[in-house]
Amino acid sequence: MIRISQLLALGTVGLLSLAGCSNPDQATNPSVVDSAQQASTDAANTAADAAKDAAGAANTAADAAKDAAGAAKDTAQTAMTTGTAAMGAGELMSVVTNTKTAVEAGDFAKAKEEFAKFGDSWSKVGEGIKAASADGYTAIETNVGSVNTALGEAQPDSTQVMDALTALGASIESVAKP
Fold first, then answer.
1. Buried b (16+ CB within 10 A) or exposed e, 118-153
2. Of 24, 113, 149, 158, which residue is 20 to 30 A from 44 by alpha carbon distance?
């Protein structure tokens, strides 16, 4: 497309220079021919520069589009990870709440049974929480150990179990917040 434009420009300039001559000697006069050649060369260079500028602008626009697509992908993945962590946190909090209710009633057998469900939920959502917040994941793991230790006693201390459950609940809630 650009070559056709260049040829048309060159042909037009050539015809105009020949048509502008009033006698045959002027057509072969080097100054007129040189002027026509220079005008043709200038027109061709201008067209080439314009084509380069257009190609550069197209590349810049393509790069900007790639960057925007990458940013959109990152945002979508972050939202998905955060949403998964929040949904998983709700499931985990349900187990913590049920375990607290059993401890408040003094039914440690029921509390152990309820807290055993935590492992099932954790195996489903733990990796999503780890992806969303490595620190939150570590805090939950630490607090789960504290709850298991407190509930594993021969005679569990309800205050110690409740404190461990409260700390676990706080670490879960910190992960659930966006």
1. beebbeebbebbbbbbeebbebbeebbebbeebbee
2. 24
99-109 tens-digit pLDDT: 999 999 999 99
Could you tell me the pTM of the whole model?
Answer: 0.52
Q: What is the pLDDT of residues 128-150, one digit of tens each?
A: 888 888 999 999 999 999 999 99
